[in-house]
Amino acid sequence: MVADFWVTGLQPHAVSAITGTGTGEMLDALAELLPPPTGLEQDDAEEQPLAVAIVGRPNVGKSSLLNAIAGEERSIVCDLSGTTRDAVDTRVTLPGGQRLTLIDTAGIRKRSRVADSPDGAEQLSVDRAMRAVRRADVAVLVIDAVEGVTQQDFRLSELFASEGKSVVVVVNKWDRVDPRIWSVEKMAENVKTQLRHVSWASVVCTSAISGRHVEDVLEAVLDAGKQHRRRVPTATLNMVLREATQWKAPPTQRGSLRKGRIYYATQAG
Ligand code: GDP
């Protein structure tokens, strides 16, 4: 039967959509024919500066943090306007040679006239933050150590997670908290519990104004960037998938006893 299809000049694949027989082989053959994913190749990714968006509510210290990171001891290659008018990009080369593009939304937002309306301003800054974050590999969410996590921070973190961004949470103005009440560990735990969508993110407590622990922010950002650009080979992914489904089978379909089946996985982006 299958052999009959060779006459078309194309390679036939015998599959059964119901039992799944042959579909793995079919997908392997399909994957081989696909062009390599654009912009994802390891070499290309390494050449691109890591894009880092600094976002958070007004007055939490985003500009101060940016200035502390892009301090004089680092060489600022150039200041360039962002591709949108929402944000200003600053290129920074770190002493280790790593290049960063810092996307800062603070300056423009301060000039916003919509700031008069609390709801309008909030919506606007979330939208701006998200536009900046879409261009970024890593989102740095800055929160005020005294104010703590707000509703807007929660919303932003939820959006970062759904956009598949790496996240570093910076608890700034650490100089203003009472050390008898807060330790770094306690604060990190508190933040992770409240921002549950990004509970995997690193939490760094800093004081941007004095520059304390700003190095830790950079370290966390570089690490998050490395994880964000990590590509897992298809073979590894399928090995893990096979083991995982052996350990815990996919659920049965609603209203039937048939089990769901996972045939194949590949990291598309
Ligand atoms: P942005 O609106 O998020 O960009 O915040 P800014 O960087 O403009 O900072 C807002 C205010 O907080 C300024 O008056 C800063 O001097 C102050 N500030 C920023 N970082 C710190 C900090 O680490 N500690 C303290 N005590 N004040 C800070």
From TrEMBL:
Record-level GO cellular component terms: chloroplast
Record GO biological process: ribosome biogenesis
Transmembrane annotation, as ranges: none
EngA-type G domain: residues covered: 50-229
Keywords: GTP-binding, Nucleotide-binding, Repeat, Ribosome biogenesis
GO molecular function: GTP binding
Matches recorded under PROSITE patterns: G_ENGA
Coiled coil: none
Pfam family, any one: MMR_HSR1
Protein's recorded name: EngA-type G domain-containing protein
Lineage, top ranks: Eukaryota, Viridiplantae, Chlorophyta, core chlorophytes, Chlorophyceae
